[in-house]
Amino acid sequence: MARPYYKTRYAPSPTGPLHLGHARTALITWLRARAAGGRIVMRVEDLDAPRVRPGAADAILRDHEWLGLDWDEGPIFQSAQNERYAAALEALTHMHRVYPCTCSRREIALVATAPHGDTGPVYPGTCRQGPSHPERTAAIRFRMPEPTPTVYDRVRGMYDAPRPPGDFVIRRADGQWSYQFAVVVDDAEMGITEVIRGDDLLSSTPWQLALYEALAVPAPSFAHVPLVLGPDGKRLAKRAGAPPISALRDAGWPPAQVWELLAGSLGLPHCRTLDEMIDHFSLETMPRAPYLHATATEPGASD
Ligand code: GLU
Known about the structure:
Blueprint: E1 7-10, H1 20-35, E2 39-44, H2 56-67, E3 73-77, H3 82-94, E4 98-101, H4 105-111, E5 139-142, E6 151-153, E7 157-159, E8 168-171, H5 179-190, E9 194-198, H6 205-215, E10 221-225, E11 228-229, H7 245-250, H8 255-265, H9 274-280, E12 291-292
Parallel strand pairs: 1-2, 2-3, 9-10, 11-12
Antiparallel strand pairs: 4-5, 5-8, 6-7
The structure holds glutamic acid (GLU).
Glutamic acid (GLU) binds at residues 11-13, 45, 183, 197-198, 201.
C-alpha cells in the first residue's frame, strides 16, 4: 500500500555541538522532505543523561534555525517519552520477545567470541533460559530472530550483518532505555517513513528492523549517508579540534557559505538558496565516499 505521505526527522544527540557532518545529514534530510512535500520532526535524543551537555540541545536547535533547516513538528525530547517506551516494552514482554539479563559487561566481553565491531561484543545469549545471577538487578534484552533481517538501504543497497548481531539491550539495569529501542519506538510512533542518518548506524539497522517486525509496525525506508571526515580521516564529531557550526558563524560565515560548502560536498552546483538545491539533489547520485573536510574557519575559506 502506498504511504500517505513522506515524513522524516532530525535526531540530534545533545552530547556536543553541531558539526558540519551533522549539518550535512540534516541538509539531506531537509532536501528529501521538501522535495517530497513531506514533514520533518525535530527529535532531541537526550536519553544518555551522563553524556548530555547542558545547553547543547538549545544550541543545536539554534544552529538548525540559523542554517534555515526548519522542521514541522517538535522539538520532542526522548527524555520525556518514558511512558511510550514502557508501553512498547510491555507489549514485547507479553509476546515473549524479551528476557531479563543479569550479565555484567565484563562477563559478556569475556564470553563473547566474535571480534568486537562497532556495535560492541555479540551477546552470547547466556540469560536466554533464565538470569545467570538472579540476585542482581536485571537489564532487559530483545531476543533476536533468525535469520537476521537484511537491510535494504537507499544509499548503500543490500546490507547483511557480517554475523548474527546477538540479543540487544532494551532497558539497562539502571533503568536507562537503549538507543536501539527508543529510536524504533519513536520512529514508529511518529509515523516516520524515511530515516536519514550517518552510515555509522547502518550496522544497528538489522536490530532495529527486528524490533519493527516484533512491534508489527511497518519499517521506514533507510538512507545511510556517508560521514564527513577531518583531514586525519577521523569523524568530525569525534575530533577534538573540528569547528562546530557555531564557530563558523562566529568567524563571520553567513549561512549561504555553509550551504555552499555542503552543496559542493554533495556534488551540487552553486545554488543561491536552499530551495534551489531541491531540484539538483538526489540520493541516487550523491557521492558514496566519505567527504573529507579540510578544517577552515576563515570567512571565504570554504575550501
Ligand atoms: N542521535 C543519533 C546521532 O546523533 C542519530 C540516531 C538516528 O538517526 O537513528 O547520531
